[in-house]
Design goal:
globular; 70% helix; mainly alpha; 12 helices; two-stranded antiparallel ribbon; 2 strands
């Protein structure tokens, strides 16, 4: 058993992961991804890399669930914004962890150091994006803001960090930008209704004006403007996935990247986008 500051890491991860499978909706959303993360330690032939990926995902999942309202706010913070700020302060000076996410992050930083790299910068980028989400609840925001913070989370945060864990060159993150954007588009449309219900509006202010989407229209994905936006996003997503395939055909990546990306990211997104056009996704 791994323990950090007297607390069992496996127990903390279990407490974070179990609610992800607590309902049919959440099970559909997370079960496959959790299985893929668990399988990674066998595919990578490295228990340390597998442990790092699983523990890091648990830490980020806890923070994101609190921001999204899927997990209760701890008594140590007065707001979602303050909670994320506390985690950002901890990453800048990882001493005296005060939250389960801090404990997991401290553990991850130690594992990464043993493997010969650091992930603090990438973690800070992801937290910046979560802080943006915490501060925009209930508001439409410009497309430039949405894309900037998605880029921080998905490209220079998640993808760059993942390449380090996979044992590939992190500077290749720009080559995977189309996949990162396609995956974000998939998450945005897949989780549209639940996100709007929490006050997270991922349709830009400009798109709402262009497609004549009023505030009252946001509540249902069946309104004409929202349906048109969904089809646009699916078209963009499929184009991005094709760009990704073209890049992968010509650029060198380690075998683990080539095995993982299609299974975990490309195929689920492609199925969902195609389902929007064939009517299986409503």
């Amino acid at each position: 058993m791994y323990r950090v500051n007297g607390q069992d890491v496996e127990d903390i991860k279990r407490q974070i992961f179990e609610p992800l499978l607590s309902s049919p909706e959440r099970r559909r959303k997370y079960q496959w991804f959790l299985r893929a993360i668990h399988a990674f330690r066998y595919l990578s032939l490295s228990s340390a890399r597998g442990e790092l990926l699983e523990s890091y995902y648990a830490a980020m999942r806890r923070i994101d669930d609190i921001v999204d309202g899927d997990a209760p706010m701890p008594s140590t913070a007065q707001s979602k914004s303050e909670y994320v700020e506390q985690r950002m302060a901890f990453v800048s000076n990882p001493q005296a962890p005060a939250d389960p996410a801090d404990i997991l992050l401290l553990y991850c930083f130690s594992l990464a150091e043993r493997l010969g790299f650091g992930i603090m910068e990438e973690t800070h980028h992801i937290l910046q994006s979560m802080h943006f989400d915490a501060n925009r609840i209930g508001r439409m925001v410009p497309n430039t803001d949405l894309q900037y913070y998605f880029y921080l989370r998905d490209i220079v945060g998640t993808i760059k960090g993942a390449l380090k864990v996979f044992g590939d060159d992190p500077e290749k993150c720009h080559l995977l930008e189309p996949l990162g954007k396609a995956s974000r588009t998939y998450y945005v449309v897949r989780d549209y209704e639940s996100e709007v219900g929490r006050g997270i509006i991922n349709i830009s202010r400009e798109d709402c004006e262009r497609l004549d989407i009023a505030s009252k229209d946001l509540e249902s994905r069946l309104t004409p403007g929202i349906q048109a936006w969904f089809r646009e996003q699916a078209t963009i997503g499929l184009q991005l996935l094709q760009q990704h395939r073209t890049i992968m055909a010509r650029e060198p990546f380690v075998p683990l990247v080539r095995v993982t990306l299609p299974l975990v990211y490309v195929r689920p997104a492609e199925r969902y986008f195609q389902g929007i056009f064939n009517g299986s996704i409503h």
